[in-house]
Amino acid sequence: GNYNTLEILRETSVGMFLGDDDVDDLLLPTKYIPEQAEVGDSIEVFCYLDHEERPIATTLTPYIKRNDFGFLRVAEVNEIGAFLDWGLEKHLLVPFREQTERMKEGHWYVVYCYLDEQSFRLVASAKFKKFLKNDKLTLAPKDEVDLLISRSTNLGFEVIVNNQHLGLVYHDEIYQPIQIGDRIKGFVKKIRSDKKLDIALKPIGHLNIEPSADKVYSSLVEAGGFMALHDKSTPEDIQAIMNMSKKTFKKAIGTLYKARKIDIQPNGIHLVIKED
Fold it and tell me: 15: which of 122, 162, 193, 260 lies 20 to 30 Å off by Cα?
């Protein structure tokens, strides 16, 4: 379920056998052998069990690996469970006991991949929350984090943070199109007393003023030096034109005004043209 760098030990009619101090005679089938590969070379491969439950190596890149979260499509459902397309020939099993609801063929789900200790097989679970821990956080407010959008709720979108923690982005703080399965950057907005994480999709506080000001300034230049927006414009108009909240927009034009780059008038904001 992970990547390993192994040495090519010998070549046969069925493929090359790989190994190191811990692994001996792991088959890399002929169809996966890169051109120019020779005995003695080191090669990075992904290791898993094939259809006959034999350890095997591949140079294909799976969509998910062991102890990782992913957004995968159901390729097949049978009496054993759901089987996910994870980029390899053998599909990844989600047993019925690891499904929050009966999975449907062709549908996409956020899952966690792990090694089942009883069967020693890689399986996936749609009950991914049990693999997330917020009790030992090493994050701080304003930290940039990696997000996987995992679920929509009444409050907002639940997100998997840095492949370890559970967080929430509130609906009224989302100013860009997002959907379940998206992998995007975010920022820690607040760590609550119960260790819950509030996440923002844009930099927090003063960190957000600079890029927002740049965005407004660039848009103003592209518009020919005038935009019919100002600090009295409605949040809906600002959102539609600038894709940002009114609060962020007001901070941005305040920064530009103090820097004498714009003039704020009743009909909108004007670019200040400095004479040579």
Answer: 122
The pLDDT tens digits of the residues spanning 106-135 come to: 999 999 999 988 878 899 999 999 999 999
- Range of the structural domain that residue 78 is part of: 68-129
pTM strictly above 0.85: no
d(CA 212, CA 218): 10
Q: Domain count for the chain, please give it.
A: 4
Spatial CB neighbours of 89, under 8 Å, sequence gap ≥ 6? 50, 51
Give the residues across from 268 on adjacent strands: 265
Rounded Cα–Cα distance for residues 67 and 70 (Å): 10
- Summarised one tens digit per residue, pLDDT across range 137-162 is 989 998 999 999 999 999 999 999 99
CATH number of the domain to which 162 belongs = 2.40.50.140
Torsion, Cα 33 50 47 9, to 10 degrees, reads -50
Q: Is residue 136 part of a domain?
A: no
- Tell me if 53 is assigned to some domain: yes
